[in-house]
Amino acid sequence: MTSSSGASRRQVLAVAAAAATAPLLAGAPAEAKPKQPKTWDLTVLGTSDTHGNVYNWDYYKDAEFDDSKHNDVGVAKLATLVNQIRAERKGRATLVLDAGDTIQGTPLATYYAKQEPITSTGETHPMANAMNVLKYDAVTLGNHEFNYGLPLLATWIEQLGFPALAANAINAKTGKPAFLPYVIKEVRLGGHGAPKLRVGILGLTNPGVAIWDKANVEGRLVFADMVATAAKWVPEMRRRGADVVIVSAHGGDSGTSSYGPELPNENPTALIAEQVPGIDAILFGHAHNEVPEKFVTNLKTGKAVLTSEPSKWGQRLTRMDFTLTREKGCWKVVDSSATTLNTNTVVEDPAVLAAVRGQHAKTVEYVNRVVAQSSVELSAAESRYKDTPILDFINHVQTEVVTAALAGGAYAGLPVLSIAAPFSRTAVFPQGDVRIRDVAGLYVYDNTLEAVVLTGAEVKAYLEYSAKYFVTVPVGAPVDPETISDPAVPDYNYDVFSGVDYDIDIAKPVGQRITRLVLAGTDTPVAADAQFVVAVNNYRRSGGGNFPGIVKTQVYNAQQEIRQLLIDWAQAKGVIDPADFFVPNWKLVREGVPVF
């Protein structure tokens, strides 16, 4: 009875109170709007795959960089955009990250790794000079950071005024991270007295390093799966107080690899976003694509994870913007977005230019040295689909070096074949003076020369695999050189052989295209059990491109850079004459009829 009468009394009081206030509320809306929670904002700027570009300069053409879309390149351009955004935000939290592939890719970068290596001179690397001026907050190690060996990488890292991250690069002896896995940056969300935010930045490098730079890392580093590594470290970062977690990953988002299943996924960015809870955004690189903004739903939490990739060479800057609130003492991202900004809209930052001016000038002087005279103009424009002298130049030098090295040894009696890829569509040796930049423009990668023994059957299988580069064009259909190749296969993953004669029938299905394979200058078919020494670059020999049969023990490996061998040959000869090396030995056909 007591509780019942108490409840009745409360109801009466409530009704009376409502009646008493009714006149006061008569003109008010039925429901007051809830108070909006206060919000703050964070901006994260991202670069990737700058590949040794500081100035907006094409060292191969000795001119300002320009392409068909009028892109610009270089850290100096990126710095101008970054400084504009910092000024616009007037001290509000702004972080700048890079997703890797920084110290390789231009003659500028090569010069300070090979001609005057920073490990010998103690000079600061141009990419450290440029990035220190820009004041990055962190950089992730890309696969190309390992190209010049671990001592040079360690020297470069020491020269940086900010951390270099690679959580999945493991010391092979200790099983512990070989580099800093992550950092947690404390930033103020505004001016004086504004609350602090702790931003965790996790760096992930590419497992393909184990193949591509095997000589530099084997026995020293192991590269763990990027997804599993993120799953290990993200909860740890959260436990250590990270309010927001950004992953900086050197891997694309296609979910596929250019190599086989023996290594963890090369391009797992979308998989990381899907499978690892607790990530707010991923800045990624490696694939050289422009992905302004892409959301990936995490399968465990249903949360949309923001991802962005800023193209290559400093052509774009990613801008990520986050809106945050505090709920019960915890930060929460309530909105996020991203875009990419084009560096061709701004001038170069003078402070970055000044920091690298002397090194840039020294590189320009070096690449303009004349090494030989060419009797005629040689162009790489048609090398993908026609046998050209300029690609034969590469194969001739490689064959000559390997033949001389094996003379008098166990393999001296075997024919030497050579493999080269059309790395450049624009390389030209002009008639007359040929400079270092002309040769470097033909062979743009820092590959070294190796050799292995292949059977005739393995040579044929290799050629069949390479021939998948071409789309199928039926007999009678028009052939357009612009569309003759499969866009999914990059030019650097198509190889031509010297030392055997062969036809590629592009009217036939993939796997059945090598319709003629004979010993050089004969009609004698290559026997399946015949043996050949094959000169090949280290990238391909160690599994790059996933070509069959080529990953085997080298019979030659003197760690000589192919680009330098080409320069040395030209300097020694003094004259580049196709009569010395051009041997037409392959062609595209349809039913035996040459396409070109």
TrEMBL record:
PROSITE patterns: 5_NUCLEOTIDASE_2, TAT. Residues 1-32 form the signal peptide. It holds the Pfam family 5_nucleotid_C. Keywords: Hydrolase, Metal-binding, Multifunctional enzyme, Nucleotide-binding, Signal. The keyword Signal applies. Residues 43-289 form the Calcineurin-like phosphoesterase domain. SUPFAM superfamilies: 5'-nucleotidase (syn. UDP-sugar hydrolase), C-terminal domain, Metallo-dependent phosphatases. Gene3D superfamilies: 3.60.21.10, 5'-Nucleotidase, C-terminal domain. Coiled coil: none annotated. It is found in: Cell envelope. Its cofactor is a divalent metal cation. Residues 370-548 form the 5'-Nucleotidase C-terminal domain. It catalyses: a nucleoside 2',3'-cyclic phosphate + H2O = a nucleoside 3'-phosphate + H(+); a ribonucleoside 3'-phosphate + H2O = a ribonucleoside + phosphate. Belongs to the 5'-nucleotidase family. PANTHER family: 2',3'-CYCLIC-NUCLEOTIDE 2'-PHOSPHODIESTERASE_3'-NUCLEOTIDASE, 5'-NUCLEOTIDASE-RELATED. This is Bifunctional metallophosphatase/5'-nucleotidase.
